[in-house]
Amino acid sequence: MELRQLRGRLEAVLEASAVLCVSGLDAAPSHHRRQAAALVQWMLEELHQQAAVVRLAPPAQGGRTAVADALWQALVPDQSRRPRLLADAEHHLDRLLARRSQTILLVEEADRLRSEGLLWLYARWRTVVEAGGAAVLVLTGGQPLVKVLRRPLLASLRSSVYVHHHLSTRESGLSAAPTVPAQGVGGPGQGAGPEALGQGAGLEGMFVRPEIASVTHHPDGKQSVEWAPAIWTLAHRGYSGGGRLNVWAHPDEGSALKAGARLAMESGLDEDPDARRLYAAGAFEQVLQRYEDTHPDTHLLRVQAAFLEHDTL
Question: Angle at which helices 64-75 and 86-98 pack, to 10 degrees?
Fold first, then answer.
């Protein structure tokens, strides 16, 4: 289930040209942490076989210069020396990134970079996206990546993070850190929204996350995505409670679907062979649909994002 959830999130950022953070394995050796980045790279290349993933491994405590050197070495075929002035290097790198059908930047151990280095990478991603290109920025690292992104200097980067995925030991297959709950980080991406969204470590940081509110398709074939803060909800109305509608909030879509499927099975669907097969296969969304198909029209069991009004935050 966890790998399917990571795959789903990677699919979402590829489609929306967004930023994804993958954290975990903080206590693992450095080579295991790099293997976690390799897992993400493999999944990205499986999802988008035409796109070449640019994998960066800047040195620890690397700032703008170190990160620029790493990107230059990855993108410049002849390995020529980069221009002495960083601004000249930025201009050349931006042009190289813009020529790609889709830019995918995968950063190893991003939690060990200085804020200025992270901001410099974020600026490269933003430059491509604002020019109408397709770009994805994936930051991988240990659990401290959650705290790193809460630095005031990184508010702009934090506000563009689509979702923060915690890579557990069981999911990665590596020996590493104890598993802790994933923290939602970030606010609305390329749309208006409160910068404070997701900064707290309480329920707001756990449950509120940016989701796609609308997608506008333009005559030239391009599309623009509007993001808004939302929580994932599970709604149920059945025989119990006199037809009352019950709604629960969940940290993410995956957990809401799983809880909904479990509720469906506990509500009598465990006697349905098709439902049992779907549940065993982890097809939780189809289990919910099976529930509605086999119950009266007044019953419902659905998972959806509930968007928050800005003035309520």
Answer: 40
Q: Where are the domains of the chain?
A: 2-186, 232-312
Question: Which tokens is 6 given?
Answer: 């990571």
CB 44 within 8 A of CB 30: no
CATH number belonging to domain 2-186 = 3.40.50.300
- Look up residue 273 and give its two tokens: 């062979």
Least confident of 181-185, 256-260, 300-304: 181-185
Q: How far apart are CA 51 and CA 100, in angstroms?
A: 8
What's the average model confidence in pLDDT over 216-235? 80
Q: Which residue has the tokens 């990205």?
A: 44
Task: Dump pLDDT digits (tens) for 117-140.
Answer: 999 999 999 999 888 888 899 998
46-74: pLDDT as tens digits: 777 666 788 898 888 889 999 999 999 88
